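Encode chain A's predicted structure.
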Amino acid sequence: MTTLASRPRCRGGGTARTATALAVTSLLGFGLVAASPPPASATSSTELYVATSGTTGGPCSISKPCSSVSRAVVVANHEPFNFTPVAVNVGRGHFVTSLNFPDMSYPEPMLTITGVSPSATTLAGNGSSAVLYALADAPRMTIQDLTIAGGSAPVHDGGNFMNFVDVTFSHNAPGGALFDDGGAMDVSGSTFSDNALTTTTSGGGAVSEVGGSLTIVGSLLTGNSVKGARTASGGAVYVNDGHLNIIGSTITRNAATGSAGGGAIGIDQSGRTTVIGSTITANTAAGPGGLVSATAGATISFAADILVGNTGAGSSVCSGGGDTDLGYNVIDQSTCSMGTKTKVTTSAALGLLPLAPNGGPTHTERIRKSSAAHDIIPVAAKLAGTRFCSRQDQRGVLRRQGPATSCDAGSYQFAPPVITGISPV
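Encoded structure for chain A:
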């Protein structure tokens, strides 16, 4: 008897992450996590610990944790400064958090805040401010393995570098979830769900990129909205004078209710956006551009994407011009620019299945072997300077499966079952 497992081939035998996360182990029953010992060549870090059982004035040590992330940062700010990274390890639970780095003299070069997992650790807003607000003089930051929820203002980067790995941003409103104001951000393996922007005329129900650089890899944006303001655009993402890369991600069921449109993405002025190997579906706009609304001077490029079921006013999908087809997209209508290598099809022919946990840190929309997006990109095809089939999909699965001569468009790579063993009859 042959035993089959529907497990795709992954590099290294597991789901790859786009940034290196700290390995974790349980500690002393606090539900805490700690970094694995660094390699001998690495610089050691100051380790601090936060637990629901901690104290408000604790030293944040492993044996005497403190009760808030804010307290851990204060402790780090009063340590003898040795200019080494600081790691704050947060245990299971719900922690009301408001970190405001302009109020702190913080000379250490890097701050890492690590939870147990997005389902176990939540940093929650206090009802009147952002969970995290940082300007250019703040340390470089990595936030990972936790949820940020209930922030009345977005996590703010005012010119620094921030890295988010396996973070869930959920129910942050009315200011949206994440705002990059001239900084540099990397987001990987993360989920933005049910966030809303109702307070400004710019846009981005989940993410707003203004004048900086943001890369989103292997992530999900769903159920986000920009509401109210007539000129606000981008139900999921908004870009103004900045540069946004979206790679191997899913953007679905987001909405823009104002007349500016852009159900999924809104772009103003000289904003530049590139979308590669992603799935953008079922986004809606009351104004033009169910997929994207771009003003004069803004540009967006699509490559190897699934772009279906996005509806705006007058049945428009792409509005304002500035959209470029880099090839091998799958789309269901013609208001977007299309080259000869892009395939026009129907939603039914694509056969996208509902969002589900199909492997990896985020939910994806799976395709079957019969999908119109399957095996349409030759392994030799270069998109944005890289052989596309040498990349990974949203889950970390290799695009090229074994000796295949082509791979799939969109954020999900179909992979046949792998024989893991043969049982005797």
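The first strand starts at residue 2 and ends at 5.
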